Request: fold
Amino acid sequence: MECLRREPVESLLMLPSGCVQDHWPSSLQEFILTARSLVLPREQKSPQSFLPNSRVASIGTVLAQGMNSKKKHEIEALSGIVDAIARSRGAKTVVDVGSGQGYLAQALSFEYQLAVIAIDASSHHASVTNTRAERIKKHYAAKCVEKQQFKVPRTVTCHVLSSDTLAAVTLDACQDDHGEHITETNNCNQSIPQIEQPNHSIPQLVLAGLHACGDLSVNMLRVFVSCEQVQALVSVGCCYNLLSEDTDTCPGFPISKAAKSSKLVLGKSIRDLACQSAERWRNLTKEMALQNFDIHAFRAAFQMVLEKYFPEVSRLSPSIGRQGKALRRQRLRKVMESHLAMGKADDLSYPNCKEQNMNTDGSLPTEPTAPKGAVECCSNELCTGFNFYTSHKLQLFWIVCFSSL
Ligand SMILES: C[S@@+](CC[C@H](N)C(=O)[O-])C[C@H]1O[C@@H](n2cnc3c(N)ncnc32)[C@H](O)[C@@H]1O
Reply:
């Protein structure tokens, strides 16, 4: 750690690329090079490059309502991929796991005419999905010249906590009759309701999920492995830090048998760290990276202050990360704007920088106004004697603290 503390920001930014310095201890160099060799590639590829028979339909304004440009891009690409895979496996039914407001489910129903079951824990999401689907159906029916039946996705509300439940809910929803009641369980040893004899009332199906949080993606994998009706799995995981680690049940976080037998416990902070997308750092300019590090450090410091002096606030408002993220984005946008104004656009290698800074509705975030007290503090007694750099940092720290509350 000591040698890293002395390194300039530029060489820290090169760490994710596997760049090591000769003067670092060989154990550190080895660790970084091994970690780099294990990284999964993150290059963007078009669906056609690995699925030549796929068709990516452009999503129109009615179907795209409520989506920002990132979500629209994801839904367009993923629905084309799910459709191509479903066709190649002879499956006409797709189960969208963690379907949210039904964006993927609706694209698959209306653009690709697949039968879709949308499973989500939130009943509110189910009712939004149903309302949206009815509106979209009217639009498609109106523009269709021939008489065509449009099927809306079927919504199922279930908080899935195990692969058993996911298998049972999936098979039950796909079956012709829906008599059986599903009981939630956490017990991984309970056998999955496997259909021994081929049951012709249950169609071949594809499990799909876009940003299915934590263990939900793991449970999809388990159901894919054990359930013969599931012909394919298309899953984009999310919130890896939420993966469970409890070894008494079936942990979602992948740990080798050797690590388990040594009773190794990682804990939330280490799982969080393992899930940081450090790959992004190398695309940051030095200035952006420094600001990024500042905000992370401030958040950590603020968390410590809260836990020590205001434990009840820390317990009741666990939203520090979210607010800090908005502030960080807003600050990055400012840096980028000033770079652009100075004609330094070439320095900005941060990908999709405009989109990264957008609110979920696609608009740019508004300036957070620092609470009056915070700014006054900096220009009055607290900052007397500080040089500009320090007072600027203190001011920023105050803004982070207040915006986090
Ligand atoms: C990040 S959102 C993704 C929503 C949607 N797939 C999309 O991309 O717009 C994750 C969704 O999964 C649902 N979810 C999370 N954990 C779940 C669980 N254990 N069982 C069922 N749904 C869950 C949440 O309610 C939320 O709607």
Notes: Residues 227 and 279 are 35 Å apart (CA to CA).
